[in-house]
Specification:
Helices cover 30% and strands 24% of the residues. It is of the alpha+beta class. Strand 10, helix 6 and strand 11 form a beta-alpha-beta unit. Helix 1 packs antiparallel against helix 5, helix 4 crosses helix 5 and helix 6 runs parallel beside helix 7. It is globular. The protein starts with a helix and ends with a helix. The relative contact order is 0.12.
Length: 543
């Protein structure tokens, strides 16, 4: 059958609605705070060849890379002829196409009248997958084998029946099995919701109609992306940003350099100038790095269009294996989000030279990941994984936003009441941080301060953070933002803590305070409107 433009648009929106239904299913049925409250998960719909067709409004670093993961599985790891309609394949292996071990991705094919018409996928950041530290975000790991349970592509469900051996293997190797397995069951439920929605569509349009619609949807997004790139000025634009260190070699910053070349309707991004991979876990696989590149280019476009794999076709990347942006096995990669955040900042810095009216100054550019594992007298453990944020960079036309989840993630915060109800911890401070945004004609957004008090006789604290040395940059004369700060308060004494540390023992009554970066400023601070400056002082943005 030949579909008209109205039918194509109906199907495109129906696919997006299916991804959104999957999203809501995970949210309503998941069990851990990192999934249910922090919203660190994603859902998407793919065509029969594994190309992303539609996605929910969740985590950019997940969504731009899930298609890469599925294509890797189909090309190298799973016999597609043996992947039936009632099979669910999972993996978390970065060296099979994934990102880092806490992210377990599940895929399910969708069939209509015996023909594969699509795939559906869900990805959740799980609260723990074993390894050196609770939360599986070790700052001192030097190989991936120390980072937790590594699951190769395997059928978790086969012909509609649970593979009990795989479920038992996962349960035996993690600290909070009920939470992880509950969240994994939530992913499976989400897949079935998405598959049912696609089967309903196929009943109306047939397998041929679904295949045709998918191809045309991708072509439409590709055409829109090419047109948007074509309106950018040709040239090569370079920029460098820095990560503080890898947690092992503390005196060696990590370079993120990009050379963005715009030629007609295509963009090439050369990452060859990035640092070699490092010993610690501040590395990324190419799937993660490409997600940052694709996201940056879409952000720089002058009009919105449907985000799917068609958008990626006009964009190519160069990144030799062995770099921090394309790590070689068995490099540890759990802190890959720091690399992608900073790579996105570098991309913004380069694209600002091409389209200066669209690109903001640097946002906080880091996930402030910290984990508390409390141990009660009866040996019962509670694990809290927090991912804090900072301020966004100022835009040419507006101030940055205070404490907004930006860039490569789109998390929420875990409510204080939820934390205190589930773990022996008390939040004693949670507020915007004055003077943390960069000065400028447009002010950078503020970071935040969050403070936890330990109410358990035994607690171990792990931090894996950055932006404590290299501040978020300003643009067009704007000032940099403040850097982060982490301190231990014990018996009235305040002691600075390293931002990358594992299993630090804490006592009852200790407090941990984190102060996060704001965003860079935009434009000459001397040009700031006096009324805006007065408002900043009145609201406490400037101390």
């Amino acid at each position: 059958m030949t579909l008209g433009p109205i039918e194509i648009e109906v199907i495109r929106n129906a696919l997006t609605a299916a991804a959104a239904e999957m999203d809501v299913t995970v949210w309503r049925t998941s069990r851990s705070t990192i999934v249910r409250e922090l919203l660190d998960y994603s859902t998407a719909v793919f065509d029969a060849e594994g190309n992303n067709l539609a996605q929910s409004a969740r985590i950019p670093s997940h969504l731009n890379s899930m298609s890469h993961f599925l294509r890797e599985l189909l090309d190298k790891w799973v016999d597609v002829a043996d992947w039936g309609p009632d099979d669910v394949v999972i993996s978390n292996d970065p060296y099979c196409g994934g990102q880092h071990l806490p992210d377990i991705t599940a895929f399910k094919p969708v069939f209509h009248e015996g023909r594969r018409i699509a795939f559906v996928g869900t990805l959740c950041h799980h609260i723990d997958v074993g390894g050196l530290v609770a939360g599986s975000y070790a700052a001192k790991a030097i190989e991936i084998f120390q980072e937790g349970l590594r699951i190769p592509p395997v059928k978790l469900i086969e012909k509609g029946v649970r593979n009990e051996g795989v479920w038992a293997m996962i349960r035996q190797n993690i600290r909070k099995p009920d939470l992880l397995l509950g969240d994994l069951q939530s992913q499976i439920a989400s897949l079935e919701v998405g598959a049912a929605a696609l089967r309903r569509l196929a009943t109306r349009y047939g397998a041929d109609g679904m295949i045709e619609a998918g191809a045309r949807i991708l072509d439409m997004s590709e055409a829109a992306m090419r047109a948007a790139i074509g309106r950018m000025p040709d040239g090569t634009y370079e920029f460098t940003d820095w990560l503080d260190d890898d947690g092992i070699d503390l005196d060696k910053p990590i370079k993120l350099h990009v050379a963005v070349t715009i030629t007609g309707e295509t963009i090439s991004v050369d990452m060859s100038g990035c640092s070699p991979q490092v010993q610690g876990p501040t590395n990324a696989t190419l799937a993660s790095s490409n997600a940052a590149v694709m996201f940056a280019v879409m952000c720089a476009c002058d009009e919105p269009f449907a985000a799917n794999a068609g958008c990626y076709r006009p964009i190519s990347t160069i990144a030799p294996e062995g770099l921090v942006v394309n790590a070689r096995h068995p490099a540890p990669v759990v802190h890959r989000i720091a690399v992608t955040h900073r790579l996105l900042n570098a991309m913004f810095g380069a694209l600002h030279q091409a389209v200066p009216d669209r690109i903001p100054a640097a946002y906080y550019g880091n996930s402030y990941v910290c984990t508390f594992q409390t141990v009660a007298a009866d040996a019962k453990r509670e694990v809290l994984v927090e991912i804090e944020i900072g301020g966004t960079g100022a835009h040419p036309r507006k101030d940055g936003v205070n404490a907004l989840s930006s860039g490569m993630h789109n998390n929420s915060n875990i409510p204080i009441e939820m934390i205190e109800a589930q773990a022996p911890l008390t939040i004693t401070r949670y507020e915007l941080l004055a003077n943390s945004g960069g000065a400028g004609k447009r002010r950078g957004g503020l970071g935040l301060a969050r403070e936890w008090r330990i109410d358990s006789p035994s607690c171990f604290f792990t931090a894996n953070m950055d932006r404590f040395v290299h501040a978020p940059y300003g643009l067009a004369g704007g000032g940099p933002a403040a850097v982060g700060r982490l301190v231990l308060l014990r018996d009235g004494v305040e002691t600075p803590m390293p931002p990358k540390s594992d299993n630090v023992p804490l006592r009852q009554g200790d407090r941990i305070r984190l102060e996060t970066s704001g965003g860079g400023g935009f434009g000459d601070p001397a040009q700031r409107d006096p009324a805006a400056a007065a408002r900043d002082r009145r609201l406490g943005y400037v101390a």
